[in-house]
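STRUCTURE REQUEST FORM
Protein name: CCHC-type domain-containing protein
Source organism: Bracon brevicornis
Requested output: structure tokens
Priority: standard
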Amino acid sequence: MAGEDANTTTNAAATVTTTTTTYSSPISSTGFTFAGTPQFFTTQNQNRNLGEIPTYTQYTGFPTLPFEQNGEYHRIKNALTPLPKFEVGSDVEYFINSIKFAKQILRPEDEAMFLIQLLQKFGPKARCAVETILSEIRTIDGLITKLRLSFGTRENLRQILACMSRTYQAEGESVVDFATRFRELQLKARCRLETAESEDFGITMVGVAHNAREAFYAGLKPDIMKMMYGTNPDTFDDAVGFAITCESKLREAREIDVLRKRAANKGVHKARVNKVDAYSEDEKELIESFQAVKIKATNAEKKQARQPQKGKEKRKQKGDSRERKPGRPDKSKSKCYRCQQIGHFSWDCKAPNPIPRQF
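Status: completed
Returned output:
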């Protein structure tokens, strides 16, 4: 570590000593200069107050961490290593989640030093804003709040809730995928609620959950929505569970309908009937009812066919008993010997016989 330069100013009232300590940087050859006591980064004063970040007068690099600080160096190093670089336009929520993961490694007394070292993870443009933020906050939670305000979306909570009400399940989209899109909006609303401003006044976490549940139900496909009619889910997750169950039953009903059509066209095959045994009791009753109706209709047709018929209907069904056989002349072209008319034979002629019978 670099040496110390002490300047002493004396007046009639008292003597004031200001010590400036310069620490070497792991990134550049210049130092990071603080105005304060050098004991802040030394091991002699183990009872130092790490909750206070010393104000700095000049930024020229990053201070190195002493190896002797009882594991503090290794904890901060392990917390910083997986953090991604943050530039203006980066995903702020992804960076915040990384910081939350790093916080699990640290102890409460490590947060002050961690915040100073965190500067090296910001790009040149973002670093200017972060330096101002770090001069105002003392905890990681405070940093997260400021990052959302500075780099997060500027949509207010009411706009996010309005976006929920305009979200609908697409054609071919499963309930699980639709619920995933809704959960992203719900998470976005919750994050915005943590930094709610004046335009979000009056909206609570309970209100966000209620709006998400109602908007999810209204955005489902009509057939799923009809099946869910009458259910009263308490939470958003309960509504998703009901919707997944309804979607599964609708899919099975479509498969049964396909089996019905095949049975109507090709007849009921034993293998297909056995395949239906895997369905629920309600679905089995539906298939049995369909089969019973079909058998009843078949029996009615057979019964009607056995009943005697009269008049023209009987003649049309059975046909002419004197129908022309192969080898016999066609009576439609033959001439009657009795009346000389075309279209029938003499034994079918109704005209009186002009030749008297001889006995």
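Reviewer notes: The beta strands are 4-10, 15-24, 31-35, 56-58. The chain has four domains: 4-151, 157-242, 249-297, 329-359.
Form closed.
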